[in-house]
Structure prediction request, 138 residues.
Amino acid sequence: RSLAKKLSGDKIAKIRFELRFASYQKVEGWESAFIAGPPKTRVWISPEVALANSDVARAWPQPDASGFVVGFMLTEEGSLKLARLTKSHIGENLAIMIGGQVRSVPKIMAEITGGRALIHGPFTEAEAGVVAEGITAK
Prediction:
């Protein structure tokens, strides 16, 4: 189901949230995907999920310069996982996946501690709200 369908007043369904390692070069055994464009950029995604819905404690829509983003706070265990994986993979890429789609592929620049992060859209306020509610739905 699309975001548009969820915006029509249906009860918000759970939306799959995943962080996975990614590469712009082909990696044997990883799946090919496209970053939600435009432009459509091909990326290879690790089959292993580094963080998922169960690691998210809460999420919320948040305004930024380009519209809205989804802010999220991880559980204590999720925070530790993110700190460990970012510390040991600086310079590598991480795919942020929402509902099975690659939303963005940021490069890990430093260890991420504190357990808070942002998912960049671009989203409208309503879409960011649906994503925030969906990734924390039980």
In short: The two ends are 17 Å apart (CA to CA). The chain has three helices and nine strands. The first strand starts at residue 17 and ends at 23.
